Amino acid sequence: NQLEADLKYAIENDEIKVVFQPVVNTLTRRITGVEALARWNRAGYGPISPDIFIPAAESSGLIDQLGLSVLRKACHEAAEWSAVKLAVNISPVQFRNPGFAAQVMSILAENDIPPSRVMLEMTEGYFIHHPERAGTAIEKLKQIGVSIALDDFGSGFASIGYLRRFGFNRMKIDKSLVVALDEGGRSLEMLTATVALARSLGIPVTAEGIETEDQAAILQLCGCDELQGYLFSRPVPAEEIAQLLDAQD
Ligand code: G
Ligand code: G
Ligand code: MN
Ligand code: NA
């Protein structure tokens, strides 16, 4: 499979880059954190979406190496941005590896990043299919001091109960719920109730995919404490994050 062969080559030759999307405090609009996102410019083809190459890495045994390299690069950059939180996406396949927590711990230590600055984002799939093992893996990660977010909430089958059961530290509302606001129906009620439930459990909420001031205003009313989306910034290279942070001081 040519895609996998090219991906393997790209990982080994350090061709996977990392960009960062700011996450802002809803009320102050200041950047409180960034989410690291992997990028691959495939030789001879141009940019390939992570929606293509992450699944390819998962099915070909390359995801552990790819995921750790993204984490390492993200920590290396974040070491320059004092206090800003760093969120990194974790594939359920990585999460399944018994050595994962120890690897995370050593990458943070290498870069002098306190675990309290780091949040790992995961989607629901593994929790639904292997709740026992997922619970154990989460426990290990929480013991090293990183926090855990339930990503893409509302795009699949995860329920509010998961947040409590697995001890998630944050809920990330999927952009499909934000887009649905413009389509009317009962989207606003759904979103309001979802955010209220999470908050009543003491779990803070970030909304993703905010593109307009109207959406930002609605999510502020719903009680989301953090927002992320093109309205504030697209995912950008590390140098641009440094500039954005300088500009807000
Ligand atoms: O950046 P968007 O850029 O197109 O990302 C598309 C999808 O790929 C998102 O669901 C995002 O969570 C996922 N993704 C991006 N980077 C990474 C990564 O480093 N690891 C994992 N597991 N998923 C990622
Ligand atoms: O990990 P997650 O699935 O949440 O990844 C975030 C994805 O959303 C990435 O693909 C990122 O590039 C994309 N994204 C971030 N902000 C916006 C936005 O405002 N609008 C849209 N359409 N996509 C966004
Ligand atoms: Mn994410
Ligand atoms: Na995701």
UniProtKB/TrEMBL annotation:
The chain holds residues 472 to 720 of 729 of the full protein. This is Diguanylate cyclase. It comes from Agrobacterium bohemicum. Residues 1-249 form the EAL domain. It comes from the Bacteria.
